[in-house]
Automatic annotation (TrEMBL):
Ranges annotated as biased composition (Basic and acidic residues): 530-551
ABC transporter domain ranges (all copies): 2-247, 314-528
Annotated source species: Microbulbifer taiwanensis
Family annotation (CDD domains): ABCF_EF-3 (cd03221)
Protein name in UniProt: Ribosomal protection-like ABC-F family protein
The entry's keywords: ATP-binding, Coiled coil, Nucleotide-binding, Repeat
Superkingdom per UniProt: Bacteria
Amino acid sequence: MINLQGVSLQRGGRELLHNADCRIFPGHKVGVIGANGCGKSTLFKLLLRQLDSDSGRVEVPAGWRIAHMAQEVAASGQSALDYVLDGDAELRQLQRQLEQAESVAADGHRLGELHERMAAIDGYSGPARAAQLLDGLGFSHADQQRPVSSFSGGWRIRLNLGRALMCPADLMLLDEPTNHLDLDATLWLEQWLQRFPGTLLIISHDRDFLDAVVDAIVSFEQQNLLLYSGNYSAFERARAERLAQQQAQYEKQQAERAHMEDFVRRFRAKASKAKQAQSRLKALDRMATIAPAHIDSPFRFSLPAAEKTSDPLIDLRDADIGYGDEPVLCKVQLGIQPGRRVGLLGPNGAGKSSLIKTLAGELSPVRGERLCGEHLAIGYFAQHQLEALDVAASPLLHLQRLSPDASEQSLRDFLGGYGFVGDRVFETVKGFSGGEKARLALAILAWQKPNLLLLDEPTNHLDLEMRHALTLALAEFPGAVVLVSHDRHLLANTADEFILVADGRAEPYSGDLEDYKQWLLGFNRDRKDRDRKRREENKDDGAEKPVEDRKSQRRAAAALREQLKPLTNKLKNIEQQMARAEKKLAELESRLADESLYSGGQQEEIARLNREQSQQRDVLEELEMQWLEISEQLEAARAD
């Protein structure tokens, strides 16, 4: 078993653990939770022996194989499939040994031993298993052959996750595995982890994901590790009961309960008998019950809305949505009225982000109309919103730029609800964590008082307490909301209705999230069946051709290569441009990270570098889109 006894640890002058004890038995699946910066990732480093504690004992069984998910991946020309295969170190070693043994004078006995070992570890199915992992994580067949360097940061994190899952392990350590996953990939990962036979420790801020996977929770509380039996919901109830018994917190707890119960009453009076409304009502009742578990949360804020509004706020009429001449969604009819609350559902790549970009005005319809109300005020949180922050500015300065006449105290009071208290409002964004940047981006959005919130994966990098505060704030937001999220708890408590984005359409969905989960599993099964049948048909077509046609086959293959040569040359050219763009972006990021740049008097240079960085990211994104389009053309031509 894993045994931590009397462990104390300081990092950067902060005491993360003080005389902490914790025991985790083999085969248990444990969620590790706590506020950002409390030491969750540091705990993993202790278990990996990358770090030593200041005192106490950290014991992990000596013979255990440990798999862990790296948070960064260097750009390389290696294919995605090979990168994931490298997760199984023994398999890769055996492959190299076999290749070496077969290239020299054959040693039959040695070859036999190697093949026997390959069979024992199920090594021959390794490439197929790696391909299945990549498929589950949202990589297409063409993507699996792409170089790692051609993927964006979020997709590279998915590759790290696939590599960790590929590793045969007795102990698996996963740090925020769902941060860059959409809902279908998250559901697939849930099922995979449920079948995992070893011991699992997983850091996650997705409560529904934890509920589905873990059977215990380790919570960082006051420099100690407290172990709770059951999933995250059981932890909330147990902690709420414990806190409710503390007299010093009693009045604050009752105020929180009264606040939640009042909201439930007001919502109950307005709720129709529709399935979505009733489902949300039950969720809100549950939120009131577990409110004391979040009584010591540092986050308390609301989302004010613009005083003026229009009806409708936005109206899409017969809109074809996408890039270039090939739309991903056709004939979209969608009107967003004041107070409407919509969750966008759909499989990976179906067009959810394209739809929300079109609503935001960042993407023009290929055909059709986007009509805006006179008093439309959009608050748009994009997946890459954090990159738009000025790394040299403080949270206070970000808001002062928006409202130069606002008093410093009012701005500080507002930022305090998002966890920026005391001198933290003066610190530059450069040193912020991903969670702190996400909180600031939400604060900037809220300060502008929108009447329509467009949120594309707003919970990435947010911890559980901030997600809880955001859920409460969105529940009471009086404006309209359109939301894309893999966080089912947020969806259930924010959206009153769903739109299903799939098969080139965006249409109302009458079911709830449990119905959608079953629909999505069936959709993915059907897609895999179609892909398998197509591969089998292609294989059969090749087998049926007579031997005498081999010359004509070769001639046809040569003709096809010649025909596709312009596309393949263009693809190589784009890959070279991508490599140059990535190099330029890395140079800009390195320059922006130089502390001497912010010593004073270089504001124009900082602004210029930020503009160049933004432009270079746009260039890289456009090149990636071109790469994908040409790759799909090549794949289609070869299939024909």
